[in-house]
Amino acid sequence: MMKIKVAGIVFIFGSLYYLIGEAISATFFNASLINTYLFHTISELGIPNGNSPLFLLMNSAFVLTGLTLIFGNFYKFKDLIIKNKIAFHVLTLIASLGVIIVGLIHGGNPLTSGYHTLGAIMAILGGNILLVLISRSMGNFDKYQKITLIFGLFGLIAFWIMFFNVRSIYMPIFERASVYPLIFWYFLTGYYLTTQSLNS
Predict the structure, then answer these.
(1) DSSP notation for 77-122
(2) The whole model's pTM is what?
């Protein structure tokens, strides 16, 4: 009971830290808040330059997001997975390490941008595939699993739209549309786990 509650709290904290961290970083970015969200990628908030004075906060949010997924999934959530356990563990590692790479290796540098891009693909594509897998790998297919499936499919669709429109002025919107389903799933899962612990 305690383990499931702890995992739930970690997931909720991770989701809120990310959303608040991005919002604060965007507030101090060298553009209006609306323009930052519409026309500047999340990665830009983490580049250490004058445009983003709070780049450390954004990068800490990336790293914490990866650590949250590793801890939450391996500490307790894995016990709820009935099928596809190997794929669950592999995708958890891919998505987690991907977003940690994003936080440690910044975009905007020609020498390292390839690694940053690889990390982003691992995090977004791997993460959304993980959600689809989770939705079909638990004992039941109830409300939680259905919402998880919707998040995963929405994120995958947004990812592919972004992938084929990387030069579009609206690419940052597609990027956030592919990332936020994962962050919202963190909060959903935290709520689900803490509710489970209260009912058990």
Answers:
(1) GGGGB-S-HHHHHHHHHHHHHHHHHHHHS-SS-TTTHHHHHHHHHH
(2) 0.95
Give the dihedral sign, CA 106/112/113/117: negative
CA pair distance 49, 158, nearest whole angstrom = 28
Question: What tens digit of pLDDT does each residue of 173-190 get?
Answer: 999 999 999 999 999 999
Q: What is the pLDDT of residues 94-145, one digit of tens each?
A: 999 999 999 999 988 888 899 999 999 999 999 999 999 999 999 889 999 9
Query: Taking the mean position of all CA atoms in its chain, how far away is CA 162?
Result: 16
Largest CA distance in the chain: 52
Give the residue carrying structure tokens 């604060």: 24
